[in-house]
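Onboarding guide, step 5: your first structure request.
Type a short instruction followed by the sequence, for example:

Predict the 3D structure of this protein.
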Amino acid sequence: MNDKKQDNVFNIPTENLAALLSDLQKLSKRAAKLGLEDALTWSAGDTFQVEKVIARGHKKIREYTPITVNLVGDIKLPGGWHLVATLDHRSAETPIILSVPGEELPTKYRSTGPDCNHCKLDRRRNDTFVIRDEQGEYKQVGRTCIADYLGHKDALNIARAYQYLAQFVGSLRDEDSGYYRSAPSIWALDDCLAFTAALVRLDGWAPRSAGTDGAATADQAWNWFLQNFEPIKTKRGSIHPPEVIEKDTELAAKALAWLDVQDPTKAKSDYLYNVQAITKAGTVTRRTIGLAASIIGTYKRVVERELRYARERKEKYNGKPSEWVGEVKKRIKGLEIEVFGTYEAQGDYGVYTRVVFKDAEGNEFVWFASGYTDLEAGQKYIIDATVKKHNEFKGKKQTQVNRVTVKQGLLQ
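The system replies with structure tokens like these:
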């Protein structure tokens, strides 16, 4: 965002734009009722984003919309007079000047008191108006005298209407005003997904549907983002955000690449259509964090499904279904496997990872690993494992194992 704004161009946080436009409309209607029509015009420019790198390399994006607000010049008053400026005497020893565009206010009025050239009474006045005639003569008139001086009751209404408009536009220059507050926090999608992947890797996936208020993965991610990933101090010490490692960044990139090639018009569900819309936007807001955070898990399930389907098609062709392997409580050594999926989740005793894999014969296994595992979907390994039990999953025989030791990884 350009810090040096033009006098009549204001960069407004996009989430506050509707409120500003509503207020401009109301103010314009009020001015029209007081006899000043079409004195205020405005237009919106193209929304733009400002990216800022915050703690630990994360990116925060702010979204703004430039609004151009113009006050017309040559405010005509009854009797051939023109309004030059309104002077506000309430808040300073010298007046606050609200000049009409195109008018040149004589410098003597910069230090004038609340005087009135009509009644000439020395008394306290909140506002006075500087007017000029066609010959260039200037007068300063009090609020209660302007109608009498110009001989028309509409004179005060027109002058006050302009004052309302000018004060409002003046308030827009104050960046502490409400229109500049709460600039929307927007998270770069790739950054969001990488951090979510780190959260899931270390703490498991916690859905909002589980009813864990504030502990859902999406809410945890958003809360860390809002506080710029700074450590949280507690009585027991500081809690630090999870560190994003290369594996998290790679997983986020793969998920985005998968969504990018999908055709939104052929989405099989509203959910898939919505996450593709987020992908096209490239950013995440408070409203969309739930959908965005779920992309990592969705992608991992899709990878597993595609790998599983490919293997099942091969098995169907070969005519060999999954069978139980080994004996319960016995050790299997040198088992060559291919991983189909890994899912981190919260259990009664902390985070666990469900790893699904098959051996070279097409027999299916599942391992509920404590904590996080380095095994990756689509990769082959040689492991030793103990058979825990034989069960069935979706009508297929499955061997559950534990005490898995990876002897060799990433086989070609």
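Each response can be followed by summary notes, for example: The chain has eight helices and 18 strands.
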